[in-house]
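Handout, tutorial session.
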Amino acid sequence: MNPHPTRYAELNGVLHDLVTGAQSALGESFVGAYLQGSFALGAGDRHSDCDFLVVVRERPDAGQEAALRELHAELPQRPGFWNRHLEGSYAVAGDLRTPDGLGRQWLYVDHGSDRLEWSEHCNQPWTRWILREHGITLVGPCAVEVVAPVPDDVLRESARAGLATLAHDVLDWCPPAVAWCQRYLVVQAARSLYTVRTGEVASKRDALRWAMMHGDPGWRPLLQQVLADRDLGLDPLAPPRPGSMEAAREFAAYVAAVA
């Protein structure tokens, strides 16, 4: 196994336990384990979750699923930090070999959760693109050997499709009275615009910086505010700066219009 996949020794230890636990649960069905998301894009820090993907030969059977559920019920209860900041899925290898497999549900654990669910969360064009182009192999074959290329038009259209309802969709689950949610909305809009324009996927920081350079200069103060405030992390009691939520909604509408 890759002994140093990240710059955090504690996280590397947690990933070792995750991988060995998954191998034990899955047996011969285990293909490989990878990092995608912010750590794969070179932007992971202590304000990031750690996005993983374990590739399996076939959908886990009842015994394998029960063992995986036990693993993820136990991991977040351990002392430490990074064991409570994992997010990822158990991806069926056949689904990854064709764009036709996009959107199929895999076993998924949400950020910090101790419960697996069936979800399409990690089976999206942008997650596959990051995995293939930048994925960090923990153990197993190189990611390009297990995931097919994502067609450019599929990646761009997936980014464009959600923009019309982005503010509604984000603020439906993320309270607008929380500052983190204001920042999240701006970041998602910037990342979507980056993908529509470039056909690639950027980290949160890089998408904000790109938008400052390539978007309407009038949005720079908002983008700078979100970039500067990211290190504040998630505080459910911290309200947005005055006027910033309204500006975030307007930015999302601007991005939907120009995309």
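The second record follows below. Compare its token runs with those of the first.
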Amino acid sequence: MLLNIEIKGVQFSNKGAELMLEAILQQLDVHLGEYHLTLSPGRNLPYVKRAKLGAWQKLSFRRGKLDLTGILAKLPTKIRNFLKRYGIVTEADVDVILNASGFAYGDQWPMADLRNTAKEIKRFKALGKPYIILPQALGPFQREELKEFAEVLINDTALTFARDDTSFAECEKLNKSNKLFQSPDFTALLEVQQFNTTEQQSVCLIPNNKVVSKFNHANAEQQKNAYFDFWIGTANFFIDNGFFVKVLNHEGKEDRDICNAILEAVDNEQIALIDGLNSTEIKALIGSCDAVVSSRFHGCVSALCQGVPCLATSWSHKYEMLYGEYGLSENVIDFGLERQELTNKLNHFLNDLTNQASVCLLHAEQVKEQNKKMWQQVVAIIKS
């Protein structure tokens, strides 16, 4: 009987989350060949796109503290078999859960997310089914009310992978098991078809609405003007140096609004909006560019792992940790730099592209080897 594997924390609107889904599917295809895939319905996981992947639709219900998912799993077998005719399964039909939430558990996120995940982990542990936390940013867990659920996340899973040094250190404070490991973002392994390139040098600019979202930073909205000035100054710099500027919408309407504002302000024939690509097309596009400036984490990953020099602006520790892995810590910059400071930084970056590409590729090979080791551990658990 084929294993039924549920993948959680992924979606189609956020292209980083979609990229993680594609990366997981590619590895499951390699290591397992045949299996059943399950995805839960969601606003950013519409039925049509789930159906194209041949995914079972999971029957679940969560509203605040009310979580009926475990109860629905206790439906009689006859009813569950009937639901399968319509492509619907319950938690009882799932053999393995792979959680690829990216960055969803810690002090800055709603407690309900971690609480519901902890309950799910306990249910799977009681049934002897593996629940695996794939590499992601975790913590901090300073809020007392979070620690109980964080301990479950770290100790009651089959495997938990923290993505970086800071995340691992936060998890280690609560670790009482031998199931906690560290491994970098796993999308580096995802192979994509090469994108058509032009003779003219190009740079890809990838803004992120979260950088100036009050949800993530109390004073973020006051920084909006500085953030727009950063992108306008960066776009003009590369245009002045003979580059074609591709402003990429990496996620939804809010990012698109920022992209359009940049294009309107720069108003040059050497700049264009890139929109409507899926995650693998985005990675291929990034791989075709000569340089990238990104506020999106997976925009940075997709550049670095393909040897494309990339500057980043940061809104969480995961950026600094990523660039430490790739030996380019100085490439995480402050978008609030004065114009001359920004110009100096961009000039240094531009003059160092060849060396940076070599550094990226060297570290990318190391990251990919760690990715392979992580998947060996995951597959061993799935097959056990």
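Points raised in discussion: Residues 4-188+366-383 form a domain with the Rossmann fold fold (CATH 3.40.50).
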